[in-house]
Design brief:
It is built from 1 helix and no strands. The chain is an all-alpha fold. It is elongated and about 35 Å long.
């Protein structure tokens, strides 16, 4: 499961880059937090 989570989060950063490319001047923020060090991040 951990690999799938990592891949899904990588996709978020790909979307962010596409938004930056297609909407120059926009600000995109992704906020994540972890409930515990070994838990996957939540956003």
């Amino acid at each position: 499961m951990e690999i799938v989570v990592i891949e899904e989060y990588a996709t978020l950063y790909d979307y962010t880059e596409e938004l930056r490319r297609s909407n120059r001047g926009s600000t995109i923020e992704i906020k994540t937090e972890r409930l515990a060090p070994r838990f996957p991040p939540l956003f």
